[in-house]
Specification:
Layout lengths: L6 H21 L9 H39 L14 H9 L2 E6 L19 H8 L13 E6 L3 E2 L2 E2 L5 H9 L17 H4 L2 H11 L6 E2 L3 H11 L9 E8 L3 E5 L10 E5 L7 E2 L3 E4 L4
Helix pairs in contact: 1-2
């Protein structure tokens, strides 16, 4: 700890050491001295809170550094990474990791067709930008939104999703006919875009992931492309698509991730009500609150 350069970490470490020394001194006072046990308990509680604060600062610094390195490698220049949301504790982070959720930071950048990034090896092709240019998709479909997000890192294949922790809730949703393909059990396939975006299904999925339902949904094409290139190029290596958040009103919806469509470069526009045994999904949540 002697090499810590961050002022906030240094200050908290100094506070921590002072409190620890104070508690040790109190505990060494002979029993006949007039020291109230309530006072000792107060100091112990103060020490515990200081430890928790220090742990949170270390966690915040570690995650920021991790994301800054990945972003610089992708964009080719340094990207300012904001603090992790105050609601994301180390314990919550570990819980999300067990659920296969990954915490990442995205900057506010317009990923237009002319943008060149060293890490964008499979950038979105002309078909995506044509959909934006002709008004099928909103003009801001190319722009990343700054902030912290959670996204599932789960592996997909034509045979299904590996170690899928959403299987039980999907089977339940089919059992109550919230998902029409009732004979597919806990599979992520054979679910329509309309079903995935319905409030009743999002409520159940948000409960499992432990995020506010209003923050939960699907990744947009630009997010899927950037995060896939940066962290999961294998998303584009399988013979199955995944639903995206982007849609043309409630008529058609974007899909991506099919190996035959040039890995992570291409998107497809398909029916909002279409249910297919080769189209699945992965969840994404946007965590907006910052320290």
């Amino acid at each position: 700890m002697s090499n810590i350069n961050c002022p906030s970490l240094k200050n908290n470490l100094a506070t921590l050491k002072a409190l620890e020394n104070g508690v040790v001194e109190l505990l060494q006072v002979p029993s006949h001295k007039d020291v109230k046990i309530e006072y000792i308990n107060d100091k112990l509680e103060e020490l515990t809170n200081a430890i928790l604060t220090f742990d949170a600062l270390l966690f915040d610094r570690k995650i920021i550094r991790q994301e800054a390195v990945a972003l610089e490698k992708f964009f080719g220049n340094k990207i300012k990474v904001l603090h992790v949301p105050a609601t994301v504790t180390p314990e919550q982070y570990m819980e999300w990791q067990e659920l296969g959720m990954e915490l990442h930071y995205l900057p506010d950048v317009d990923m237009s067709k002319d943008v060149g990034c060293p890490g964008w090896q499979n950038k979105l092709d002309k078909s995506f930008y044509d959909l934006v240019a002709d008004g099928t998709l909103p003009a801001n479909s190319t722009r990343l939104k700054a902030g912290w997000i959670l996204i599932e890192g789960i592996k997909k294949s034509r045979d299904g999703y590996v170690d899928d922790l959403l299987g039980d809730v999907l089977a339940y949703l089919r059992s109550i006919f919230a998902i029409k393909s009732i004979d597919k059990g806990g599979s992520r396939f054979n679910i329509t875009a309309r079903e995935l975006k319905s409030q009743s299904i999002l409520n159940e999925l948000a409960y499992v992931i432990n995020v506010p339902v209003e923050s939960l949904g699907l990744p947009r094409a630009i997010e899927y492309s950037v995060l896939g290139n940066m962290h999961h190029p294998e998303w584009g290596d399988t013979e199955c698509n995944e639903w995206l958040a982007d849609s043309q009103l409630i008529v058609k919806n974007l899909v991506a991730g099919w190996v035959g469509d040039n890995n992570l470069s291409s998107v497809g526009l398909t029916g909002f009500e279409r249910s297919s045994d080769n189209t699945g999904f992965r969840l994404m949540a946007r965590l907006n609150e910052n320290k």
